[in-house]
Queue: 2 jobs
Job 1
Amino acid sequence: MNAVQDALDALCGETGVRRLTVEPGRDRRGNPEPVAPISFSAGDVVCIVGATGSGKSRLLEDIEWLAQGDTPTGRRVLVNGAAPDLSGRYSGTGRLVAQLSQNMNFVMDASVGEFLDLHAGSRGLTLDAARRGAIIDAANRLTGEALAADHQLTELSGGQSRALMIADTAMLSTSPIVLIDEIENAGIDRHQAIRLLQGEDKIVLVATHDPSLALLAPRRLVLAGGAIVDVRRRTPQEELLATRLATLDRLQERLRNDIRTGLSLDAYLSDPAVPTVPTAKENA
Amino acid sequence: MKLITVAGPPACGKTAVILKTAVELRGHAVHAGVVKFDCLATDDDERYRRHGIPVQKGLSGSICPDHYFASNIEESASWGAREELDILFTESAGLCNRCSPHIRDVAAVAVIDVLGGINAPRKVGPMLRTADYVVVTKGDIVSQAEREVFVARVRDANPRARILPVNGLSGQGAFELARLLREEAPDRADVTGSRLRYPMPGAVCSYCLGEQRIGSAHQIGNVATLDLTSAGGTP
């Protein structure tokens, strides 16, 4: 293969990036970014919040680009505590950040199995039946509707597609960092998805304003005006809130499944998980 | 002045990439302009003008747009120099994948979008294979795996090139492209006597000369015949 690729594989292969540090730069007006250097370790889950235009994508670009004071923010990104080798910046492959977002689709005309083989092949790997099966099993643990190797990609449901993308990114992509951008709850178990990515030693960044997803992360980076303006740690109260929100998520999922299978939802009225807000009719 | 040839299949985002890059360049006080080549019609010159980017357009009409490019690039470069541009982009029509506008010792950019399918990097011939920079667009709407497979195929087709993802809508990646062009593209205000990196197709048949009738009786000149003697082979 080529030398640049080898160098990049060495830099960010499965075991390469243990810790990534973002040293502060400037906001859009040129004021210093008011935070200390922020480190991410393999297996970390960190939430990124901020309005559109607050600088979320620039932060990710800085990480992707391994910025060395040479981007508009002036940030520096360190890998394992040191300035990284930049030779891989333009190789195009083995990039640092893998991305999973709402508007992503499969456009390939292939079966699930062929798709996984192609992805592995693009890295020079041959996928044995066991590994391929393991990825499909992992996807099936994330979604209620089972998918199989011979299903066509273009015929998968939204939930199945997202589940396969997550399992594939966790287990076949070399990128040590995964950004999850506002991924929808419907059809997949997002908690399980994040555990899968963590388990594969990824650094998981979650850009979301969905409270139950945001509270999965022990840290939240708050962005505004092009800078990281605060790093919030999840409080014990928020943790408690998270478990309650998780109950609501599970309830929603059960409701969705029952609707899908054609069942009546009457029994849910007396379900303890359903909040008991009196209806106008009951008040009368 | 730096001259930069930009080529790529139709609707892959060439104009958006050039626009975003030119705007980034302006932030570094680098004055960029564009000569847009197209075949029958284009409104892209208006898009450039709206962003305050000096632009000329050339419509090739009944002539092969790539040949039209080759016979007009010398004057285009002179125009850029007269406008006192720091960078002149030429944007080609990108109609057939056989041609390539890239010139030796002139920075060459190929733009290709991931929606063209994973075999596209092989099908898009010399305009991608001989480019210095390959810009991959529309990556935000396909899966991570397809992006990775696509980029690996681009690298197979052109192992030398620098490969950069650019989002033509948000401009993500344009900052880096602008910087590479500023730092690396050679100064070439005059291309008189320069050579194309890859020859245009051998042509000159009766159809090049305006023939409209079908049939071997009407074919003269450089004509290639498809071999249809073997069985079709139904699967």
Note: Chain B has eight helices and seven strands.
Job 2
Amino acid sequence: MQTYHKILTCLMVVLLFSCKSVLDLKPTDKILAKDLFGDPEGVKLYMANLYYQLPVEDFAFFRAGFNQNHQDPNNGGFAPAMVTDEAVHSEFGDFVGDGDFHWWDQGYKLIRDVNLLIDAIPTLDIIETERKKLTGESAFIKAYAYFALAKRYGGVPLIKATQQYTGDVEALKVPRSTEKATWDYVMELCDQAITNLEPGDGKNRRATKYTAAALKSRAALHAASVAKFWNRAPMSGNAVTDKLVGMTAADAAGYYTACIQASELIMQSGAFALYGATPASPEEAAENYRMLFQNPNGGDKETILIKGFTLPGNFTGHNYDIWFQPAQSANGWPHPGRMNPTLDLVDTYERYDRPGLASPVVTTTEGDVTDYGGFNPALHYLQFDSPNDIFKGRDARLWGTAILPGTGWKGTPIIIQAGYVQPNGQAVIRTKAETTINGITYYTYGAANTSQYSGFDSYGGNNTRTGFSFKKFMNQNAPVMAGWNQSTTDFIEFRYAEVLLNYAEAVVESGTGNVAEAAKALNDIRRRAAHTTAIPLTAAAVQRERRVELAFENKRFWDLIRRREFHTEFNNRLLHSILPLQDLRALPSTKFIFVRVVVPNSNPKTFAERSYYRYIPGIAGNGLVQNPQY
Amino acid sequence: MKRTAYILGMLLIAFSACKKDNYDGPTATLYGNIYDAGTKTLLEQDIIRGSVVEIKEHGWENVQPQWLIFKVDGAYENALLFENSYSVAPVRGNFIPVEPQDVRIAGRTQLDFSVTPYIRIVNPSITRAGNIVTATFTLQQQVTNNVRKIGLYAHSDFRVGEPLRLTAAEQDINAVTDPAHVYTLTIDLQAPNIRDILKPGKTYYFRIGALIDATESKPNYAKAVAFDL
Amino acid sequence: MKTILLSALVLIAMSCSKNGGSRGQEPPPPPPVKEIVYDETGCLYTAYDNLVMAGYQGWFAAEGDASERGWYHLGLGSCGGFKPGCSAVDFYPDMAEYTQKYKTPFKYPDGSDVYMYSPYDESTVDLHFKWMKDYGIDGVFMQRFVGEVKNTNPKGKRHFNKVLENALKAAKKYGRAICVMYDLSGCAPEDVAYLEQDWKELQTIFNLFDNKANPTYLRHNKKPLVVIWGVGFNDNRRYTTANVDALVDRLKGPEKRVSVMLGVPYYWRSMRNDTENNPGLHALIKKCDIVLPWAVGRYSSGNYAQVAGVELAADIQWCKTNNVTYVPLAFPGFSWGNLKNDPGQYNSIPRLKGDFLWQQVAGAKISGARSLYVAMFDEIDEGTAIYKCAREGELPLHGDRRFIGLDPELASDYYLWLTGQAGRWFRGEGGFGATKPVRP
């Protein structure tokens, strides 16, 4: 209801000023709609504001919402990835809260704003091609907004045209449509955008025909998955009975087809390709992958829509570099190292010598990868010459996504060590200690003081507690600027790899479409990561590929939601770390062993099934049916 | 000192600014038990994420329901309710859904529920021999849905269950069960992931659970058994 | 909001005064009408309990039979009747044992003629009831579409009366339960009222309630049973639940002449999906003796447990609370590609060699049901028939359409046998469970 009040207030303000008979004074601090839309530059400005409002889950997207990049956006460095199995925070154990990730009032504000523009389009004095483009972009923005609402709330009130206030507040209240009708409306709007927009190359930061198709590909896959997998976590209550949430398995086919067709439009356009499609080595692949995210604008033909972070400062920069780089490269910023990729994610990356097979990191000759019981002197730990040799031969994208123990970053070896095993076989783990043997001093954390290492010391919450620090999106070229909103790395909202993965998933889950083409899509992405052996198209292979290819792009959360896997993946779920230990029993050789453990100081996480939908805010006022279990 | 006095002064002002509101506080209590209609025994529940009693206060449009939790033995009580009439039903539980009933809640109001559990755990036995804790039981399912999984759950708290456990031995079933089949689950107290969790010298509770594959279902249980390790 | 509160208070006040014992001030009750008592001596089926019965359409007619109705319910008007490339039916009966049969325009692949039976013939209905006895199916509900037996449709009425006559005779001969089941589909409100007249006629013509004349006519709660199917659906029927409620009152009368079984939509209890949201439906059900929810098409093997599991058990619980007998429905599969002129509808709910039927039999039993209604004995339009049907490879040619056959590795009587096994289980024999029995 708050939304309506805001809308009403705005509307009344507009109405007031449009009443010429009251006073012939014109306000000096407001622009009249006809003046704004009458000027192409005004339309451009207005459009920029609409794009700014788009709920893009970028570097400024956190639990509290979008565009969290002004003044002091201090959220402790808690990223959306940390409510999935991709990462844990170095200190916090928070999980999905009822108040997290909402977008309601802001959604209806954007929809009202875009509806106002749609009203104005026919009256604008512009050439037809420009009018068509505005029509297409408006539809794209509206589709994007309703997609963001549908995936959070299920079926929502569809405000298809600007509401006029005629003195009756009740008349402005629109009941929720069914979830199916809402998704169908998103599809319809995407189609309007696809029809009206011209093709483009993804270099400019406004929607093109292909951006709209990419949106449709993503949204249709979401809808199809909810329909197909609803029964994995069925719910009850009025919202279910009225079909405001939930769809039936029979609804899935149509959405999978929509996803396939939208993806094919992009794939067959020839306008897009994977960046660095055929690297000569895993090392080259890792660097290509890292570069794609450090500078999306150099991403060749892979990017379909980029959201820019243009300048350091309020509303224009972001905070990924300060929060998430390893402690050693903090450059004076007091709170680095918050993003800790999990062993669970690292285990997901393929090994080049085991294509298509699950290959969790093996640490002992006994080979039990489910043993998280801590260092056990009775086991035979595999010894390695370096703290990252154990990860050698694993998918290049791991090396491009995470900073592994002992690898270089900004010219410094990043030291991540959890302890050592003394020559007498006793392990000293996760306590600050040192021991001197034959005149050489060894430190549990791999170095003497807190500025020299990045792992496992609980000091300041600045060290990783999983054994991995964060690399993807980090700017390697510039030192960290110790202040708010200083990062300007751009965010890729749509890229070709996601479209290929959407396509592969739609084909394999629906059992329709071109299986050979879908298998090729899957293997093209693997080839870009330096895999040379193709694997068969399976549902599991597609999901693994999504997890590693799209890691930290804020896709995993929605994958778990739409496929109704969150409550089974997170049922008393503990996430895991790897402890690199120097094995001093091997002296004078330098050897490292690794122990798989539960993330230190962490608690099990359980996903409440009600969280498949957010609660509808303000039902006492807006009269809407609440979602189940709220 | 000056600073403390200032803070105290501010607090005083703050408090005196608040007049006690003149609405009555909640005075009514709703309590009772949930029984297995077949065996007339209390139906075991979970303390967290378990079945709940949903109450909707009458007289409001689009009212936000309240949910009262059960204790593990199947009893419930909430003493912070406003006197009024309510629609009441135990929901999202480990039993065949029942229709809500209208109840006037005033003073201490007792309301028992008689329901049919999704699954009865029959002849449960939990024994310990050395490091091995063994549970045996059969299942009588009361609905034709698949049994999703069975489990033996362990925790230092007596309210142990599927959601509240330190460790568990679970088995996926995903089928309609044969009432004659005897299920066996074991926990090895010396297993690598368990020996540091269930520690010698302490008391732990073990409880058998079985979960039906139905909308918003919760597990059914046998009574927990304690062992001093 | 105030109104609700007030009325709640009034209700409480009223209930208090009732408990308070102010009985003396209430008006004197009307003189009690004596409930009718029937002689049930010799009756074989005094309750729909521990029985597995089926629905019996009996609506087919053959060109050349005495009904003069042509290829009734076999042909399809939209494509020109009953001929290769055009039919209302997907399955085809196994014609081996029929003594009276009629040549059709169809041919088998070897060029030989294809024949069809007519239930207008006594010998045919006799054969069907013999099968019921042979395989252990307790009996059938004779379908009677109100729209087909109106006085404006004399041939229809004659047809259904003749089939019923044949069936009553055979039921007596083979000791099978039989019961009349009215279907209100397509009725106008005044047709609902007409049902009462038709029902009276049947009683007179066939002496239905006579324990000697019809010792196998199904009874329940000490009264002969009549079924009214089709109340509470939200598919915009012209008649209302109130119309049916009035009809039930008239059929029962103050002396409670009959017991009534109601055929209702699947989600009758929660009043959603296929069911109108009308509390009057529950009031009506409570007035009746048995409730039969229509499950055909509501699930398939894959989602049966998810859809039916809790629904079934909660239905049974509701009925126990409200003292109504509950009878669940089971059907072997579904196929109506020819009727709908849509090949996509062939085998739309696959039979899976009886797995699907047995899943429902076991589901009903596990959930605590005491009887079963199998849809249907002879329904080949929608492909739910359990009687002997032709198998794949033994089917007539069908132009650019096709017939659907039973799995060739099953015998043509497999579904009769399997339904018979359900009968044994429901009658109390042991050794049955969720796993489909293996035919020796």
Note: Chain C has one domain: 52-426.
